[in-house]
Design a protein that fits this description.
Blueprint lengths: L16 E5 L2 E5 L5 E5 L5 E12 L8 H11 L7 E3 L6 E9 L6 E3 L1 E4 L8 E4 L3 E9 L2 E2 L5 E3 L5 E4 L8 E8 L1 E5 L6 E5 L2 E11 L3
Length: 207
Amino acid sequence: MSFNQFPNLPGLAWSVTKTPTFKTRIQKAVSGRERRANDQALPIWTWTLTYDFLRDNIAGGYNELRTLMAFHAQQQGAYTGFLYTDPTDNAVTGQALGTGNASQTQFQLVRNLDPALPGGGYNEPIVAPNLVGAVYLNGVVQSPSSYSVNANTGMLTFTTAPGSGVAVTADFSYFFRVRFSDDTASFENFMFQLWRLKQIKFVSILQ
């Protein structure tokens, strides 16, 4: 399945917010004790962007307004998913993916949030890889002909299983698969041929 990429446009303002959300059911007893059930192992990420200016000057070669309007319409609001490149979170180097056992050929691409934390940080699957720069076995770069990466799942598959105890790592960039959180977008014309968008939100899509 192919997804459109969210356009990279000038005019993006501060601040940008990024919010992870989990879903936990909490049952409280009269004594105050709790029982908790985790209904969602992976976070739903929400981004909120603001555009201070979007130019509408086709004759002058500037048409960010129409680009963003057209993109929102193309996705039919919240209906269709697309790919978003987070400027602050889009690539990893030497990312650990697992350890070979001489039989496993598939390893999920992940990004680790702060491996220095107790327990080794938090691994989140990457299901929308962009470019895979290199794959390593025990630090040795492997030929691209020895593996493939599924663009729709982020699954790395070797033609031959890595040996027992062999560290599998990779350098790659990635997208977030998202959708608009709303079916509407409010564009404001505040000056001749200048518009702004006070808020546009999108949320990540879990597979």
